[in-house]
Amino acid sequence: MGFQIAIDGPAASGKSTVARLLAEKLGFDHLNTGATYRSVAVYLHERGFSPFSAEKEIENALKDLKIDYVNGRVYINGEDYTEKIQSPEAGVLASNFARLEVVRRHLVRIQREICDDKNIVVEGRDIGTVVLPNAHLKIFLTASLEARVERKLKEYQKRGLKVTKEEVEREL
């Protein structure tokens, strides 16, 4: 078993920045579990599913799904989803699909497989309690809502997305 570091906290609290820098410094792999949720949500949405679709149909769609997380990029069945998951809409889709037990169960299993026997820094929600409850080190980051809104707003603006402070605040 490798050394696992779990970084948890609310959206835009700095998890990605801290996880990436820590993984680089230690020479560890890095996994952003939020990216896996956003990718699966976009994948399902592209295929006509919604959070209100029959759970059995969603489960069947997920059955042959292969997720790879390589150098910060997310691939589903070999297709790079990294750019597709950068929009606020992808975040909303992820939040809605993540409410489904079938989606959570499937992704937790995949995330554990990705982490198995690796020295890895894993970031996301419920990492230290659900995904890696036995992680060697657990970190919980916090930040004020104002700081989180500013951080997320800058991130979207950097990508050329036009969003208002109010939209970002509602998202968070």
Biggest sheet, spatial arrangement of strands: 2-6-1-7
**Fraction in helix:** 40-55%
Provide the residue-averaged pLDDT: 95
Number of strands: 7
The 3D shape can be described as globular
Radius of gyration over C-alpha positions, nearest whole angstrom: 16 Å
Tally of DSSP helical segments: 8
Per-chain topology:
Layout: E1 4-8, H1 15-26, E2 29-32, H2 33-46, H3 55-63, E3 67-70, E4 73-76, E5 79-80, H4 88-97, H5 101-115, E6 120-123, H6 127-131, E7 137-140, H7 145-158, H8 165-171
Parallel strand pairs: 1-6, 1-7, 2-6
Antiparallel strand pairs: 3-4, 4-5
Summarize the structure.
This protein is an alpha/beta fold and 172 residues long.
Describe this structure in words.
- The radius of gyration is 16 Å and the shape is globular.
- A hairpin with a 2-residue loop joins strand 4 (73-76) and strand 5 (79-80).
- Helix content is 50%, strand content 16%.
- The chain has 172 residues and is an alpha/beta fold.
- Helix 2 (33-46) crosses helix 4 (88-97).
